[in-house]
């Protein structure tokens, strides 16, 4: 089936199950170990990915693979509990199928969360980081191929992918809550292998503060559709090339789950004051 039609089929199924999505709905993608963020959603309606027409299915441990719709403190939220990675074998377009569907549903604001390794030696493990910019080192882009003009321009500008107002709101709320919030540049690599010490030095020299295996594809697709983006990373480990420590998936998940309470507190505070997008 043609790509655009697959997206429309998925969106139509969700519309049928949930009805019309409210205009002020905030979407959220939860990263590795951060699925607990959806526990804050009140009166949830849950749809497994496998039930949605043409929708991919998550294969990674700790990614539940379900859509959760409800409210958090009165704010309508549409959470995608689990995402799709290039290393799973998905193409960049398949990895952003969920984001395209959000756009077709009318979502205008998106919070992307992920679990990442810190490259900046001054960053603290367990702290959240607001993504100020990104480096896509995968060699892939979801914009490859024919453009869908109704989604966005063929050559979108990328000077402000992560919404400045939302970033500032995150900083302000973290300050009010007494939460240490790092600010930095996120880099996506292909994975699934972790970084070598030599690669870590190179990535840091290139200007990255944190590194992971997701998010950039989603941010590109969302920005292409004029969706406002706030990126929040959970720093699960620190990559120090001169004394590298093994970082197993189990350790990453454990640290992300441990830090999820802080992420939930910060996101709830942000949602309470999140401004509506301009028409």
TrEMBL record:
One GO term describing the cellular component: cytoplasm
Pathway: Purine metabolism; purine nucleoside salvage
Superkingdom of the source species: Bacteria
InterPro entries: Nucleoside_phosphorylase_d, Nucleoside_phosphorylase_sf, Purine_phosphorylase
One of the GO biological process terms: nucleoside metabolic process
Keyword terms: Glycosyltransferase, Transferase
SUPFAM superfamilies on file: Purine and uridine phosphorylases
All copies of domain Nucleoside phosphorylase, residue ranges: 26-272
EC number: 2.4.2.1
Residues making up the signal peptide according to the UniProt record: none
Molecular functions (GO terms): purine-nucleoside phosphorylase activity
Family: Belongs to the PNP/MTAP phosphorylase family.
PANTHER family for this protein: METHYLTHIOADENOSINE/PURINE NUCLEOSIDE PHOSPHORYLASE (PTHR11904), PURINE NUCLEOSIDE PHOSPHORYLASE-RELATED (PTHR11904:SF9)
Job description of the protein: The purine nucleoside phosphorylases catalyze the phosphorolytic breakdown of the N-glycosidic bond in the beta-(deoxy)ribonucleoside molecules, with the formation of the corresponding free purine bases and pentose-1-phosphate.
Protein name, as recorded: Purine nucleoside phosphorylase
């Amino acid at each position: 089936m043609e790509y655009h039609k697959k997206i429309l089929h998925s969106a139509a199924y969700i519309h049928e199950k949930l009805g019309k999505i409210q205009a002020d709905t905030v979407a959220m993608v939860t990263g590795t170990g951060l699925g607990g963020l959806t526990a804050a959603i009140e009166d949830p309606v849950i749809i497994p990915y496998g039930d949605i027409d043409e929708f991919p299915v998550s294969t990674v441990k700790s990614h539940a693979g379900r859509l959760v719709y409800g409210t958090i403190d009165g704010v309508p939220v549409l959470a995608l509990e689990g995402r799709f990675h290039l290393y799973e074998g998905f193409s960049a377009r398949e990895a952003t199928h969920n984001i395209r569907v959000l756009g077709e549903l009318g979502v205008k604001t998106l919070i992307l969360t992920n679990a990442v390794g810190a490259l900046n030696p001054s960053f603290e493990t367990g702290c959240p980081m607001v993504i100020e910019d990104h480096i896509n080192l995968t060699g892939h882009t979801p914009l490859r191929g024919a453009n869908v003009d109704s989604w966005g321009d063929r050559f979108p500008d990328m000077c402000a992918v992560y919404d400045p107002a939302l970033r500032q709101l995150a900083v302000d709320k973290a300050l009010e809550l007494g939460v240490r919030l790092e600010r930095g540049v996120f880099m996506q690599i292909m994975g699934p292998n972790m970084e070598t010490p030599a690669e870590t030095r190179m990535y840091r020299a290139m200007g990255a503060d944190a590194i992971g295996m997701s998010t950039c594809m989603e941010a590109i697709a969302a920005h292409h559709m004029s969706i406002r983006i706030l990126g929040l990373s959970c720093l699960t480990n620190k990559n120090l090339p001169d004394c590298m420590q093994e970082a197993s998936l189990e350790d990453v998940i454990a640290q992300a789950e441990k830090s999820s309470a802080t992420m939930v507190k910060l996101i709830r505070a942000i949602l309470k004051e999140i401004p509506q997008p301009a028409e």
